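## tool: complex_structure
## caller: assistant
## args:
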Amino acid sequence: MSTRELVDFDEVVEKFDPAMGLEIHVELNTNTKMFCGCPTAFGAEPNTQVCPTCLGLPGAMPVVNGKAVESAIRIGLALNCEIAEWCRFARKNYFYPDMPKNFQTSQYDEPIAFDGYLDVDVEGETFRIGIERAHMEEDTGKSTHVGGSDGRIHGADYSLVDYNRAGIPLIEIVTKPILGTGDKAPLVAKAYVAAIRDLIVALGVSDARMDQGSIRADVNLSLAPKGSDVLGTRSETKNVNSLRSVERAVRYEMSRHAGILLSGGSVLQETRHFHENDGTTSSGREKSDAEDYRYFPEPDLVPVAPSREWVEQLRATLPENPAKKRARLQQEWGFSDLEMRDTVGAGALDLVEQTVAAGAAPQAARKWWLTELARRANDAGVELAELSVTPAQVAEVQALVDAKTINDKLARQVFDGLLAGEGTPEEIVAARGLAVVSDDGALSAAVDKAIAENPDVADKIRDGKVAAAGALIGSVMKEMRGQADAARVRELILEKLA
Amino acid sequence: MSQLSRDEVAHLADLARIDLDDAELDHLAPQLNVILEAVASIQGVAGADVVPTSHPIPMTNVFREDVVVPGLTPEQALSGAPASEDQKFSVPRILGDEQ
Amino acid sequence: MSSWIHKTAAEQADALAAGEVTSVELVQAHLDQIAATNDGPDGLNSFLHVDAEGALVQAKASDERRAEGQPLHPLDGVPIAIKDVLATKGLPTTAGSKILEGWVPPYDGTVTAKIRAAGLPILGKTNMDEFAMGSANENSAYGPVRNPWDRTRIPGGSGGGSAAAVAAFQAPLAIGSDTGGSIRQPGAMTGTVGVKPTYGSVSRYGVIALANSLDQLGPCTRTVLDAALLQELIGGHDPLDSTSVPGKLEGLVEAARSGAAGDLSGVRIGIVTELQGDAWSAPVVERFDEAIEVLRGLGAEITEVSLPSFVHAMAAYYLILPAECSSNLAKFDAMRYGLRVTPDGSPSAEEVMRVSRDAGFGDEVKRRILIGTYALSSGYYDAYYGQAQKIRTLIIEDFKKAFESVDLLVSPTAPTTAWALGEKTDDPLANYLQDLATIPANLAGVPGISVPSGTSSADGLPTGIQFLAPVLEDARLYRVGAALEAALTERWGGRIVPSSYAQEGE
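## result:
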């Protein structure tokens, strides 16, 4: 396929309507795998968390993890889905070396949860995302590719497979087609994935670490000429593994599709890979009609028929509805509408809530997350929640500020230390020597020195031009290398020049 | 019922990842058609009102507690492997993507 | 007095309990019989792997337990053979396929574990049709099994090895697996007893699956009582098998013992209309009719019942089974275990899979994988697999209705006696027709037993009679089976046995 020009995003949305579909795989945080008693810990030595069942050894059989079913039902309920009264697992047959049985035990036409929705807010507008289904399945093993140029699959000499991940429970959440989002499509996609992540965190059913692959998104996208109600051919961008990437992948695919369509070409139905480094996608596998998964009900498992009593018990364990929760928190925190919207928009709601819970004032918590930390996340190209700074640490930093041990400016250096993994805020203050000097003797000497060096300014202050004190404070802070409480410096200057 | 052509049999072998050569195709294709002819008799026997049975003994909700049980050691896991390296299964180069 | 190997398992157990023999002596006697009869041009080839050393170690441990007065089970010390379809830790398990040549499972199937826990020394693994696909045991990658009654004949399949081993006194007990008759039909062909228990009453964990919704492990023995003893040992709920039924079937041994007393008054037995006719050879029908008269004489009420959907059973079976097995056998891909054939050049994983599967699977396996792949393909699913599952419903309904008026159903086990090796090798359909009578039980999950009904007036080879009972009513099979066995044995003046293996020094 020839490479075509990418089309400017504004032009894309002027000429086309995007249709999206998102498939999110959530790895559950159960103690054991979907169909066997093997542990699920991330990062274990290769092939140390395997048994005859998850290795697909001849003769081994699966048994469903009841806790995984419970998690699936809770996710379904939180997504406003119907919960099936009776459903089955099915085998999805295809050959791939990291799939031990060469079929994936999944669900096909009988998902445990179906027909729900999730509301997401983008720039003050609410989009209702329809949920087609949420179903249970198992993860595959993991291959590393040896030889070739860069350890990637193409050009490798051979591959090494670790089956620790094989059989870890997954919930696949599939949206209905998302239409009518126009130029907000990339943001809606991102907001939806963020909302799913927040919901998963609130339910406590997954580690929800996109960086470790415990939430993985596939983005389906097609374009239709503006006003047409015929959907275009879609591409499926696999394993988009951060919120920012979701947005970029949608944006890129929109521009790419438009480029093909405007030059008279037709979009290939294929899977595509997203590249984090430059935000582009590249062709993966063409989806052909020859693909035939030969689904049929898994004969080694019996149907799952959740009683209505069980479903209602699980419904009672659901966390607060996100919209209600937002209204409650806004009132408790005394945030303005704008402040609240910014907080939600930055993906900082839960972070602020946890910071407040750890003892910080709401405004202080908001300030750190939305300014200092948002900037750092942006610089690093990650989401706020992915920063290695925790809400508890932010609360600790604020406590140090409240105690006047440090000031806001020094606090930024503490965050540097936290991001560099230098220890707790207190340890960082000590190690970096960041505590403000509250010893009036040293401060007093510095103030005296500043007055002596700036007689003109001192005179103005003596004459009642208190605003001029700023200049003296500046030189005192400079002398103290920032480690002084500016308010106390001001007090001392005014005392001495009264 | 229509007969399976040689090409269709080759396609099935492809789906099933069996490398049938020409002689095997010649040998197996007619046999498959004899079998298919014999089993085709059931088409249309049971109407839409008949519920399919996938398990002879109906049961539901057979679940396991979410409790870790000891599995295999890596040595046991790899004991049958045609090739291994770094405690992993060594497989020839993989073409194409995961589904 | 005949040697120890000619005793039944129950008799061997009694002798162990009475201190008349040791387990080491029993095991050695059977190992000697295997050594004398298994290999060579005239050998039965019923064992693929013999674990002489391991069996003797287990026998010694059994004797020590007994000396301390602590046997683990009434059958502790009685040797057993296991069909090569069941995973045995440390013992090769090939399912009769080249693709698993040399594979040694790192785990025990549940039934293996139960056998070990009861202290039965495991003599070895018995030959079988590749992945249990066949009715003649000619589809084994390791050569056919010969019928002890006539070594030019097939022993039935797929469990020809277990049946022949028991018939030829190589083992008093053997484990078989029955997906469409693989325990019962070889039982009929070798003059032995074979039971397919109720689906889910014996764990399938560790059984290399042919068709998961049809497979069931069961006993292969020379007597009905021995089968009951073995089924009680291997049965019971297993949390590792999701399709395992709750609880454990009790009273099987008791039913066999009381049945042997011979009173069947009040027992209603239905002859299946659909399992009669031209397909059934005259000598088989002759013995069957005779057995029916014997049952009548014991007080049973004999009627005829129709199960009209049985005529579709074979077609449904040969769609469901290939569909399930095409998926089950996908795991044999040369990546994690088993045969790997690497073609020249720098082949991809996919190429290695294709070539290895072509080299590792036999023709019958390939045929069934291809049929199953077809039956599950999009566009054909409803017409084939879906329709077959509906037939299954109809067959289950037929059984339910029939069991409203009778307690058991009866038919000949197989249409003919054992045929000549090679006679039907490349005629899959002819082989499939052998399972006419046995398949319905697997589709419906009901239990079935085959007991010897005599020998053919035409060729002198054994014939079998099959009883079927409602789900979980396996005890009925043992009661009626033992009653018929006792009456026939009396009539014959002893059990029917292949003469060349019946005495020492042969």
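## assistant note: Residues 22-39 of chain B form the longest helix (18 residues). Strands of chain B lie at 63-64, 84-85, 88-92. Handing back to user.
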